[in-house]
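Could you show me just one protein sequence together with its fold in token form as a worked example?
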Amino acid sequence: MPKLIKIIDFNDKIAIMKEIEDFEKKTVELPYETNCTVTTDGKVWNIDGTDGFHEVLKILSKKYNFKYKREKNDK
């Protein structure tokens, strides 16, 4: 299930990009898929580990704009 990480101002695009960039830096070497999504209500969601989890976020918020998905590391 998605984890609510925090709530930020959705109109602050710099804050949104910082969240996504920080998430990418923290997760780049993980051996599993992970996702960070910022919904239009400013909620920052994180989901780890399984394929097909994006549908859960569509249920949580029909309108979402910013998302980062890190694919499984195949090293």
Observations:
- Residues 3-70 form one domain.
